[in-house]
Write a structure and sequence with these properties.
Elements (H helix, E strand, L loop, with lengths): L4 E8 L6 E6 L2 E6 L13 E5 L2 E6 L1 H14 L1 H12 L4
Antiparallel strand pairs: 1-2, 1-4, 2-3, 4-5
GO biological process, one term: protein maturation
Protein name: Hydrogenase assembly protein HupF
Family: Belongs to the HupF/HypC family.
Length: 90
């Protein structure tokens, strides 16, 4: 099962503004924000991430509700976090 998970933007790559570092449940990864088009995220924004791409911006309350839900489903979320840890965008 593949999930879209919320992550908080902690850094925008100065040389590649379509790349951002996000924090997801203690994991930091670079993701591509190019799908957000004319509404790129800023540091502190929350985005919904799937396979290394930000799909949309979401507010913090929605992000926390989704993270609480995902924590409750157990193994599928743990599998998604493991995939995130193993991923790299260069």
């Amino acid at each position: 099962m593949c999930l879209a998970i919320p992550g908080e933007v902690v850094e925008i790559d100065a040389g590649r503004p379509d790349l951002a570092t996000v924090a997801v449940s203690g994991v930091r990864r670079v993701i591509n924000t190019g799908l957000l088009g004319d509404a790129p995220p800023a540091v502190g924004d929350w985005v919904l991430i799937h396979v290394g791409f930000a799909l949309s911006k979401i507010d913090e309350a929605e992000a926390k509700a989704v993270l609480d839900f995902l924590d409750g489903i157990g193994q599928s979320y743990q599998d998604e976090l493991a995939a995130l840890k193993a991923s790299r965008i260069e």
